[in-house]
Amino acid sequence: MTDRQTILQALSTIPLLKPHQIEDVTIKDTGTIGIILSLPPIDPNLRDAIVQQCKAKVMPLEGVKDVWVKIGVALPKAEEKPGGVARVKHIIAVSSGKGGVGKTSVAVNLAVALAEMGYQVGLMDADIYGPNVPLMLGMQDASLWVERDEQGQEVVEPAFNYGVKMISMAFLIDRDQPVMWRGPMLDGMVKKFLHQAKWGELDFLLVDMPPGTGDVQISLAQSVPLTGAIVVTTPQTVALLDARKGLRMFQNLRVPILGIVENMSYFVPPDLPDRQYDIFGSGGGSKTAQELGIPLLGCIPLEMQLRESSDKGVPMVLAQPQSASAQAIKQVAQALCGKVCADREMAK
Ligand SMILES: Nc1ncnc2c1ncn2[C@@H]1O[C@H](COP(=O)(O)OP(=O)(O)O)[C@@H](O)[C@H]1O
Ligand SMILES: [Mg+2]
User: Which among 161, 194, 215, 20 has a CA at the least distance from the CA of 92?
Assistant: First the structure.
């Protein structure tokens, strides 16, 4: 049976892989070889190429029946982590394991609710797959204003509506064209939006993330110190499983989890506002929160008017402030402030 040294030697012939990036090699009696790599955030195609080459080099060795390669993300050491965004107090990622759970609806309404409370709020739409913030914030036709500052650096003026400053990936993507984004390119985009936008003085900068656990999450977590992340989920089992994965990723990236928001918790029929139907099951969010020891920031009901108002570009907290969903979102905003603003005097 092949030994560790032989395997390491075989791996050393891969030009894309540096020796210090090999974290561990395990050899099982069954002939299964496990290779654990620690790579910086890189282009997924490059990552796949490295995995394929590892397999190609190790598979032919004596006694080897199977090879699996696991990749961890190399985190920059604390002292290497760059500073925050000038004059922005709290950067908060709004994320979800699954798409379509209402992450953008929560991010937009939360931003407006915080602005209504008197905070200075920015919203960065980093969802490359579905940048819907401009639509939901009534700014579909807005575009970015690029100018140069005194040092000749390009700076971007965020769009502004309902008390919220906003920048979206949508402004850079041809509306009807799906675009293949590569890791390094995204990394650049996230940094540009963070540092070259004229956010000015902000209490909160919310970031609407793409669903899942990918390059944008890693890039954001490594670009700036985040106050924390909010994870949006529905009470449904599959969404919760994905949410757990997302939670684990943020924990690995050492980003504090501020709490879970359960969306579409129950259905409130427009003609019978006193009734509640648990369409996606009930209590999933609070159970997961309890199991993982993470606070549940709130439960937002499914209301037809929320979708309608989103489509019209008027967030529910403004369109129907007395509705059950708007009230629930305002409670989430309160809970979030309670969590991050030790300094309650922040509000003007
Ligand atoms: N609580 C809710 N009640 C009614 N419709 C909702 C609710 N939350 C989200 N939606 C609708 O569901 C769809 C997906 O929501 P969205 O916020 O875009 O999800 P995500 O950003 O997670 O993909 C949208 O059409 C939105 O209007
Ligand atoms: Mg979205």
Answer: 194
What is the phi/psi pair of residue 48, to 5°? Answer: -60, -40
Candidates 105, 133, 300: which one to mutate for ligand 1, based on the most atoms within 8 Å of Cβ? 105
Show which of 46, 73, 100 is a domain's final residue: 73
| Residue 164, domain CATH | 3.40.50.300
What's the token pair of residue 127? Answer: 């969802």
Q: How far apart are CA 111 and CA 127, in angstroms?
A: 16
Which amino acid type is present at position 92? I
How far from the centroid of its chain's Cα atoms is residue 182's Cα?
17
Is the CB of residue 186 less than 8 Å from the CB of residue 194? no
- Cα of 100 vs centre of ligand 1, distance in Å, is 6
Considering just the CA atoms, what is the radius of gyration of the chain in Å?
23
Tens of pLDDT, residue by residue over 258-282, are 999 999 998 988 888 888 888 877 7
Residues lining ligand 1, Cβ inside 6 A: 96, 99-105, 130, 132, 263-264, 300, 302-303, 306-307, 310, 325
Compute the distance between CA of residue 314 and CA of residue 185 in angstroms, rounded to an integer: 32
CATH classification at residue 32:
3.30.300.130
How far apart CA 105 and CA 307 sit, in angstroms, is 8
The pTM (predicted TM-score) of the whole model is 0.75
**CB-based contact 217:82 (threshold 8 Å):** no
Give the count of beta carbons closer than 10 Å to the beta carbon of residue 42. 19
Same domain assignment for residues 194 and 85: yes
**Regions of the chain where pLDDT drops below 70:** 41-42, 72-83, 173-187, 342-348
